[in-house]
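[step 3/7] fold_predict: job queued, chain A
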Amino acid sequence: MYLTYWTRILWAGLLFAVCLPAGSVHSRDLSASFSHRLESRHFIFYYEETSTDVGTMRDVLEAFWDAVDRDFFPAQLSFRVNIFVLRDELSFQQFLYKEFNMHRTAGLFGTYIPRIRGLVTYEHSGYGTLTHELAHALLQNNFPHLPAWADEGVSSFFEKFYGYRDGSRMVFRFGFENPWRLKELGARLLYLDIRDILRFPESHDTSEKRMAAVFLYRHGNLRRYLELVKSGDKRGFNSLLEAAFDKPMADIQSLWAAYLKDVDQHRAELMRLPPSQIFPSRALFEGLIASFKSDTGGG
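[step 4/7] structure written:
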């Protein structure tokens, strides 16, 4: 029943994403390529007349912004984020090639580009693509000394979520594993070293960095870690990670090993999690959680 139900939900695809390096403001008027424009509190959407998804994108991203601001860190930008929504994957790839000379875009669903103060994606690319890319903008502009691992690690943390509508608002829940990232990690999952991920992020991919962010969140310390990043206060420890946990690294590594073991033990069930989704009601959301707990034996 679980799988039958979820096959009726739109599969948004793998949420591959990249962040292009900063540079000068793009010289061309990108908005000229789009026939329609939609403005909201934090965003300006550019899209085609045939688009059926932009209104929902706006609602999800505005609600996501509020959730980040309330539950993780003050989310402030001095500009509204431009969001360019192409009609389909092919149009998206052609746009990136024409405007940014991007060649290797196969499997790409969205990208945040600092120099245009915005992101580029296409319809039905997946809500997780949008939140991942927006998180880049929020993190990079609110944390001038953001640790290198966290730009991708924390941004990708936000790509997996579930939530539901509660009247006029949306409620978000984070901290879920992402099936395709678990598949990418494969057997090396159990051998990841959190200390190495944070110290040498250039040697680790996004999926590995994401595990560190989920680990922090699972222990209730992701918000605290980001607060310490902002202040630069290690509270007498050797690292911000130790300060966030208020524990020495040896104790943290034991918790990390237990976390990896738990994920590995439930890998088969976690691989069945559907794409990020906002449900029409709390009851449908709780149905997902109940199915997940039943499958994994969780409490």
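[step 5/7] annotate
Confidence is low (pLDDT under 50) at residues 1-25.
The radius of gyration is 19 Å.
exit 0
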